[in-house]
From TrEMBL:
GO molecular function: DNA binding
Organism this protein belongs to: Maribacter algarum
InterPro entries: Sig_transdc_resp-reg_C-effctor (IPR016032), Tscrpt_reg_LuxR_C (IPR000792), WH-like_DNA-bd_sf (IPR036388)
PANTHER family for this protein: DNA-BINDING TRANSCRIPTIONAL ACTIVATOR DEVR_DOSR (PTHR44688)
Keyword Transcription regulation attached: yes
Pfam family, one: GerE
Any one of the GO BP annotations: regulation of DNA-templated transcription
Alphabetical list of Gene3D superfamilies matching this protein: Winged helix-like DNA-binding domain superfamily/Winged helix DNA-binding domain
Name recorded for this polypeptide: Response regulator transcription factor
């Protein structure tokens, strides 16, 4: 059974590596967010640390893999809410993000020092509690808020996964990390690798689909000019609108006033027969 577990783990982090590569491709095309890449990368580090821990038996090796696992947990605790907040419509003030970063950095430094001083056991439960709180917060946010437009097509999958992730991840980490340190005879098992495989596979297919629908911006511009008689300046405004830029950002980038941006936007919507930037983006992409 151990070989099956290791095979699942190897497959999981191989799929995660491929998914990260695809996410980077999508990011360069403006189809993905950096928070998603960071979240996937943190999951990869976590599952790698769990895989390595099953190969080393010496006390020093166990301590090394334990600190690696703890640091990976901190990264997961940081990137999970960052990714969820980036994808959801919410009113959480920016101060909370700064607080999250501060707590994560403090824990990261504390864990590293504890490893050097050989007192790792004193901080491991703090890290696990921090991870549990951030994951719980993230999954509640998924269940209680609406998605932003760019992930609306996978809203149902997100909500199902939120429930599974909320229950499985904390229990798996407790079973595979805390209890092992307390000398209970528990294994990694199949559950956590399968969750990671499901997550990475879902993201992989989603990014593949988005890449297949992606067209260069020049094609959007030509279509606008040809079919809707959009001027050069209106084309520039339209491309920034579908990127999610605010009126102020468009104004600063094109060096025009905000009222001028609003005038161009109204003209674009009227020519294209749409009511908002979401409909405009859908029209251009299709």
């Amino acid at each position: 059974m151990k070989y099956v577990e290791i095979t699942l783990l190897v497959f999981a982090y191989t799929l995660l590596i491929v998914t990260i590569f695809l996410e980077i491709v999508c990011y360069k095309k403006g189809l993905e967010k950096w928070e998603t890449i960071a979240f996937t990368f943190s999951l990869l580090l976590l599952i790698l640390s769990m895989t390595f821990s099953s190969f080393f038996d010496t006390t020093y090796s166990k301590n090394t893999t334990s600190v690696f696992t703890l640091l990976s947990m901190i990264l997961v605790a940081l990137t999970t809410p960052l990714n969820i907040m980036r994808e959801r419509q919410h009113k959480i003030p920016p101060l909370w993000k700064k607080l999250l970063f501060a707590c994560s950095i403090l824990l990261f430094v504390t864990t590293s020092i504890a490893f050097l001083l050989n007192i790792l056991a004193k901080v491991e439960y703090i890290v696990i509690i921090f991870l549990a709180i951030t994951v719980l917060f993230s999954m509640i946010l998924v269940r209680t808020t609406k998605p932003k437009q760019f992930i609306k097509h996978r809203e149902k999958t997100e909500r199902i996964f939120a429930i599974a992730f909320l229950v499985i991840l904390p229990l798996s980490l407790l079973a595979n990390y805390v209890f092992i340190n307390e000398e209970y005879n528990l294994k990694i098992g199949f559950t956590l690798p399968l969750v990671f495989i499901f997550l990475a596979g879902n993201k992989f297919l989603d990014d593949l689909q988005r890449l297949s629908l992606f067209k260069p911006r020049s094609e959007y511009s030509n279509q606008l000019l040809k079919n809707y008689a959009i001027s050069k300046r209106e084309k520039e405004v339209a491309l920034l609108l579908i990127k999610g830029k605010t009126y102020k950002q468009i104004s600063e980038e094109l060096h025009i006033s905000i009222p001028t941006v609003k005038t161009h936007t109204s003209t674009i919507y009227k020519k294209c027969g749409v009511k908002n930037r979401t409909e405009l983006a859908a029209l251009l992409i299709n």
